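Recall that a protein's primary structure is simply its ordered list of amino acids. Everything else, from secondary elements to tertiary packing, is in principle encoded there. The following example makes that idea concrete.
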Amino acid sequence: MKQTAPNKTCAHPGCDRPVNKATARYCSIRCCALDPVRQERLRNQSRRGRIVPLAHQLSIIFQVHPDMEAALDGSVTREDMPAGLQRLRAG
């Protein structure tokens, strides 16, 4: 047997309409947006800490060799190269 939760009323002051879902607090988006208690809670949350953009949180450092092709040329041995590239390098 499935038990149903008792009908809750909207949490917005002055609204006495029932809530459609068991986990919801408001009867509509409009009541949610107009609730002064919710607005004050959101205002306090936004004052707590400054939001730092992700670009300023991470420091990514790339070290690039001045002559990247020369660095790659020296690191690749003949055993690492496919046969087709070995013929091109020899010529």
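Residues 36-48 form the longest helix (13 residues). The chain has a mean pLDDT of 76.
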